[in-house]
Design brief:
Elements lengths: L2 H9 L2 H6 E3 L9 E5 L2 E4 L3 H4 L4 H8 L9 E4 L6 H13 L14 H11 L5 E4 L9 H4 L3 E6 L2 H14 L10 H9 L8 H13 L6 E5 H6 L1 H11 L6 H10 L2 H10 L32 H14 L13
Parallel strand pairs: 4-5, 4-6, 6-7
Antiparallel strand pairs: 1-2, 2-3
Helix pairs in contact: 4-6, 12-13
Length: 321
């Protein structure tokens, strides 16, 4: 049995094999996922499922009981979730203190209904799921949501590096060109970024009373103090200008990367392959995509992306100011 087959067997019970979608390309590079409500998702390891079925676990999220003061960070992968989560925890606590937990301990699609309800207050959750898969009470209770976005080319590069270093069977073994094809299509975990954004736009428009603050990764890099103040204001906090500056400084990318390496409690499951540079914080730069795309590849990406996003109104920053 190959190591790849062995890794698959670690998460593929007979019942799960029946629902698994093979998203691998002709070279055998890609993902084994399950599909739920029009979206491909990673098949969680048995330790997370605890004998349950992946689809049932994700469905359970819809029924989770929320508290009126809960907060949710919503984003496609690699768009700044970790960063924003750390900022918000400092603002809410009123102290410059890093969280020892990793944000996966508050990630809705990792902890499901039971885990969501077990988290003590104050609670800042995060998710890569679309609004339609989140607890019904998000809309019913008008839970404050933060939606953070990043330019798609940098998001693509970051996601590629993230998945390349992940532990089998969740890692990606193809090259960057192959990954870009998957990123622009639906054939990857959490689907395409374009579909995520369009779904978010449509689903929030259908819930006009839902309080949402839209943020951009690039703005947080270029104007960190202003963005921290915007977050504090949206949360209804009375943070001083000096404290917002202190938070922005403490949550600089360089410091956050060091904290991730030296302070964070390791999650129960192994995330990164041995011998890789596996980290949630790689470069964090605006415009790193230029080091990965050829001119022709960039133009092709733009053509496909712009066609999908025509008239959507989304505008991104692709280079530092």
């Amino acid at each position: 049995m190959s190591s790849s087959q062995s890794s698959e067997n670690d998460v593929m019970t007979p019942d799960i094999r029946e629902i698994a979608s093979d998203l691998r390309n002709s070279k055998g590079h890609g993902f084994l996922c399950f599909e739920h409500d029009g979206l491909y998702l990673f098949i969680p390891p048995p330790a997370m499922l605890k004998g349950g079925h992946p689809a049932d676990k994700v469905k359970s999220i819809r029924e989770a009981e929320l508290k009126d003061d809960d907060i949710i960070i919503c984003a496609y992968p690699k768009c700044g979730t970790h960063w924003l989560w750390e900022i918000m925890e400092m603002l809410i606590s009123g102290t410059i203190k890093y969280q020892k937990d990793v944000k996966e301990t508050r990630m809705m699609e990792f902890i499901f209904k039971d885990g969501i309800e077990a988290v003590p207050s104050p609670r800042v959750f995060n998710t890569h799921l679309p609004l339609r898969m989140l607890p019904r009470q998000v809309v019913e209770k008008k839970i404050k949501c933060f939606h953070i976005m990043r330019n798609p080319k940098d998001a693509c590069v970051s996601f590629f590096n993230h998945l390349r270093d992940m532990e089998k069977p969740y890692n990606y073994e193809g090259d960057f060109v192959e990954f870009t094809e998957a990123f622009l299509s639906e054939k990857m975990p959490f689907g395409s970024y374009s579909n995520y954004l369009l779904a978010w736009q449509k689903e929030t428009a259908a819930a006009p009373d839902l309080p949402v603050l839209n943020l951009f990764y690039e703005d947080m890099k270029i104007h960190p103090v202003k963005c921290v103040k915007d977050v504090s204001r949206f949360l209804g906090l009375s943070s001083t200008d000096q404290f917002c500056e202190d938070v922005a400084n403490a949550c600089s990318f360089k410091k956050m990367k060091k904290v991730d390496q030296e302070m964070k409690t390791k999650p129960d499951m192994k995330i990164w392959q041995d011998g890789t540079e596996g980290t949630f914080y790689r470069k964090g730069e605006i415009g790193d995509w230029k080091n990965w795309f050829t001119v022709a590849e960039s133009e092709r990406f733009d053509h496909i992306w712009n066609k999908k996003m025509k008239d959507s109104g989304f505008e991104f920053t692709y280079a530092p100011a």
